[in-house]
Amino acid sequence: MKMIIPHSRPMVGAVEARAVASVIGSALLAQSGKVMEFEHMFAEFIGVKDAVAVNSGTAALHLALLVLGVGRGDEVIVPSFVCTALVNAVRYTGADVRVVDVVEQDGNICPEAVVRAVNKKTKAIIVAHMFGQPADLNRLSAFGVPIIEDCAHSVGAEYSSRRVGSFGILSIFSFYATKMMTTGEGGMVASNNVYLLKKIRELREYDNKRKCMLRYNYKMTDFQAAMGIVQLKRLPDMILRRKRIASLYNRGLADCPLSLPVETDNTSRVYYRYIIKSSRKSAFIDHLRHKGIYCASPVFVPLHKYVNQGRCPVTERLMREAVSIPIYPSLNRSQVNVVIDTIRGFYGRS
Question: E-assigned strands of 13-146?
């Protein structure tokens, strides 16, 4: 029987099940004590003063934009080589997205492209740390524009010996099923600015409020938070597993005609995805799928094409060449060897 190796798989088990069952048994299912415990633990892990849990990464980004005063007539700079959630969150506020190109080496937002895009309408820059590799925060912080760090791929990654999510005025995280850690669905906003986080808490829920204003139903449940607490405790081990798999890929694929990930100086990446670049992308993906190994394009559609906004040559090249191969904590050594051997076979390496 052919071995099937999926592209992604969450690492959850009996400990998460017991934590969720305990909450269900308590009958306190909605946002309560477990959510607050998760928020405090998460803020401490990132190295910021506080954090606010919500029901998705998109909700986290929407609220972050709102408390920065982003609205109609404003522009928010976003990278092209990223998912469409960023466009949706910006448009929820009535603002416009300004899409810019990315860096060839890691797919992160390009500082030179940001320089060209900043104008008097620019209200924020969303800096996504793509695939677990931190972006160039030093250069991006020099423009005098508020930065929202999008850490959906990068919880646990480090830049200048600090965890990402501790640099921007606000940072957002996603805990979707296949992210670095999961609560099934869920998200978080983190910051050292407790005033902005207080405003986010005010907008996160609408019940029992005296002042009439637009608010949202973006709460996280206690059983999601219970799962998140377990996952956060396991995260350092899961990151270590990802790094070990990446090291095996680095050695096993070194002589193949591929471009492999490169870790930038002054950073510690967490390998949410292991992205290779192949000039034969379609044939490569088809070959591995035929062997039971599922790979994927890391981005479904580039944002500059999604919103019909000019050209981003580097992003377009990455769309033609970038492939995400399986890397997740439950991938065992024999499966990793199968992936390596299959890729080597595609390129005629014995």
Answer: 50-54, 75-79, 96-100, 122-128
